[in-house]
Design goal:
Radius of gyration of chain B: 23 Å
Oligomer: heterodimer
Largest interface: A-B, 40 and 37 residues
Order of helices and strands of chain B: HHHHHEEEEEEEEE
Number of helices of chain A: 4
Radius of gyration of chain A: 18 Å
Strand content of chain B: 25-35%
Low-confidence stretches of chain A: none
Structural class of chain B: alpha+beta
Helix content of chain A: over 70%
Shape of chain B: elongated
Shape of chain A: elongated
Distance between the termini of chain A: 40 Å
């Protein structure tokens, strides 16, 4: 029975931690500029789009997409680092 | 320039020459390696599906009841504290409503709607913005977190492809999650 209690507590703790991490990233994403948020979502979303496809959707060159995606990632990291999420 | 190789690596976009440069840089530059690991960790947070389902009706079980006794107490204490804080800190002014424009690119449909927690899941019609396949609607929302999905031709539910955060509802549909103004 004690093991059951420990297991359920650990699961609850993990769920809360996952939820907290989820909330942090969600808030940080909302702090990105809409263009950055959109391009990052297209790159990391379920669609698994290539840079070429993202370029076609957004009307930008692949080279431009390459730069913008990385900048958006770095901005997101900076927001999370500052704890400003 | 080399920094962008990290994103190309994460997104599987490196060609052979870039792979060579990436591996060489990883070996030679610890700062670059640290940066790569940090962004990979962030990517895990971005791409791990977080399913936070609402509680489903469960068959009563004494074992389950015993297992959850302690968390319920902790949860009750937390809720009581949160309620006290809300009573003390609750602002007197009404929260502002913010306009949010939802847009989806669906050139192949004749009708698009949006349904979400902000409309009590009642579908709201979206307006076609011309022959380019975009549909849009602007909704006035109080600050907070909302779930929603698009309804295409009245029968197909799809999540917003531009919003990363999603969760599965009790019916197996995938809803997007968006935070407004907070």
């Amino acid at each position: 029975m004690d093991e059951d209690v420990e297991d359920s507590c650990a699961t609850l703790e993990q769920t809360i931690e996952a939820r907290d991490a989820f909330q942090q990233v969600l808030k940080a994403m909302q702090k990105l500029k809409p263009d950055d948020r959109e391009i990052l979502s297209l790159a990391t979303g379920d669609g698994n789009l290539t840079y070429q496809q993202i370029g076609e959707i957004t009307g930008n060159s692949e080279a431009n997409i390459k730069v913008r995606i990385h900048r958006a990632r770095v901005k997101l990291r900076d927001i999370l680092k500052k704890g400003g999420a | 320039m080399k920094d962008e190789l990290i994103s190309l690596f994460i997104d599987d976009e490196l060609d052979l020459d870039e792979k060579t440069v990436f591996v060489q840089t990883i070996h030679a530059d610890p700062v670059f390696t640290e940066e790569t690991l940090g962004l990979l960790k962030q990517e895990r947070l971005l791409t791990t599906p977080i399913s936070i389902n609402r509680p489903m009706p469960r068959v009563f079980s004494f074992k389950r009841l015993r297992s959850f006794q302690f968390p319920f107490k902790a949860l009750a204490a937390g809720l009581a504290t949160a309620m006290m804080a809300m009573i003390v800190m609750w602002p007197e002014t009404k929260p502002l409503k913010l306009s949010h424009r939802f847009v989806i690119f669906e050139p192949g449909v004749e009708r698009a709607e949006i349904a979400g927690s902000f409309s009590r899941w009642k579908p709201l019609p979206m307006k076609s913005s011309g022959p380019n396949g975009y549909w849009e609607v602007t909704v006035e929302l109080s600050p907070g977190e909302y779930e929603y999905s698009y309804v295409l031709d009245g029968n197909k539910s799809v999540a917003d492809p531009t919003v990363q955060f999603r969760e599965e509802d009790d019916f197996g549909n995938i809803n997007s999650i968006i935070r407004i103004g907070t």
